[in-house]
Amino acid sequence: MPGGRLTNQDRRQIAAGLADGLTYAEIARSLGRPTSTITREVMRNGGSGGYRADQAHQATEGRARRRRTPSAPAAPAATAAYGRDPKAVHDFTERVTALLAQQGLPRMIARVLSCLYVTDSGSLTAAELVQRLRVSPASVSMAVGYLEEQGLIRRERDARRRRERYVIDEDVWYQAFLMSAQRNLMLAETALEGAEILGAATPAGARSEYVGQFLKHTSEDMVQLAEHWRKTLAAKRRAAST
After folding, report:
1. What is the pLDDT confidence band of residue 1, given thresholds at 50, 70 and 90?
2. Tens of pLDDT, residues 89-102
3. Which of 40, 105, 159, 214 has the most CB atoms at less than 10 Å from its CB?
4. Number of C-alpha atoms within 13 angstroms, CB side, residue 160?
5. Do the beta carbons of residue 168 and residue 153 sit within 8 Å?
6. What is the arithmetic mean of pLDDT over 104-131?
7. Over 107-119, what HEC string results?
8. What are phi and psi of 167, to 5 degrees?
9. Which H/E stretch holds residue 167?
10. Do 41 and 14 meet the contact criterion of CB atoms below 8 Å apart?
11. How far from 116 is each of 32, 61, 84, 102, 220, CA to CA, in Å?
């Protein structure tokens, strides 16, 4: 910003200019600042009718102190149980979160899902999620509500502690895979309907027919393949545990 940060004296000049009926552009020219700087300064501190120089300066200093205060890093999602390195677990959880976010999942929801995923119990209460992620209860409530609605987690009653626990199953990725395949099947049905509407003999209709058939067959294959490997790996796991 030209001239650096606004000083208390600058703010007194802004207040005086407003009192004299000057426009934001006129005040900006007198201070050698962009008009946008003056506009933001006034609007975030009471507007043209409520701007007070000293109060605006104190509020800005307070915001700067809060920004300089480093926020505490999120607590590792798992402890050093089984000889694990807590930092390595934390870094892995962050990587999972980033991957889920890249695939379109809102970051807060991705963080909750990742946190549950790396716990040995596969379940946490809302209070435990708040503590581990260091976020507000409202953020956790929104995230678990979405995940529950999508069938990626389920809610269980903890009778001993009289609290609800949110549980992630080992089939969570299978369920997510099925949801993706189902969405593609819906697109396939729509594309095939479009082929009929546009006319299969027309270029647009032929294109829609091709897309519909491609999505239909690949989605059906995906579902069959997912079911095959789900059963195969579950059988291997049972055999290894006996």
Report:
1. very low
2. 889 999 999 988 88
3. 105
4. 1
5. yes
6. 92
7. HHHHHHHHHHHCC
8. -115, 135
9. strand 163-167
10. yes
11. 53, 39, 17, 19, 30
